[in-house]
Design goal:
Blueprint: E1 3-8, E2 10-13, E3 18-25, E4 33-39, E5 46-51, E6 58-60, E7 68-73, E8 78-83, E9 92-99, H1 108-112, E10 120-121, E11 125-130
Parallel strand pairs: 2-11
Antiparallel strand pairs: 1-3, 3-8, 4-5, 4-9, 5-6, 7-8, 9-10, 9-11
Length: about 130
């Protein structure tokens, strides 16, 4: 049984940083794309960032570009996300996701932004940014 379990987030002040971890089990994701989405109340699920299986390629969503770092440790089957200079608009439930079989060519980016392209999801972890 595949499981993605997020941790981190919590409550932070504006201009601080949010840090998340996602531990995968039930499958070795070393060759799979891993990523993060977030969803604020009343809004659609939004792409945050993704990282290729090897970790050599990353891609960030427009709302966090320049403020986000995504990384992975394949030996630990874990992916990490850090969002810096956060503002109240970064408040959301953050979800870890895994996508199988994606090839990082020039067409991958539209797929990455689409929640339907992702195969496995975690339960999400809340992050709240106060001003």
């Amino acid at each position: 049984q595949v499981q993605l379990v997020e941790s981190g987030g919590g409550s932070v002040q504006a201009e601080g940083s949010l840090r998340f971890s996602c531990a995968a089990s039930g499958r070795t994701f070393g060759s799979d794309t891993m990523g993060w989405f977030r969803q604020a109340p009343g809004k659609e699920r939004e792409f945050v960032a993704a990282i290729s299986g090897s970790g050599s390629n990353t891609y960030a969503g427009d709302s966090v570009k320049g403020r986000v770092t995504i990384s992975r440790d394949n030996a630990k089957n874990t992916v990490y996300l850090q969002v810096d200079s956060v503002m109240p608009d970064d408040t959301a439930v953050y979800y870890c996701a895994a996508a199988l079989g994606l090839y990082w060519d020039r067409d991958v980016f539209s797929l990455l932004r689409n929640p339907s392209a992702w195969d496995y999801w975690g339960q999400g972890t809340q992050a709240t940014v106060s001003s």
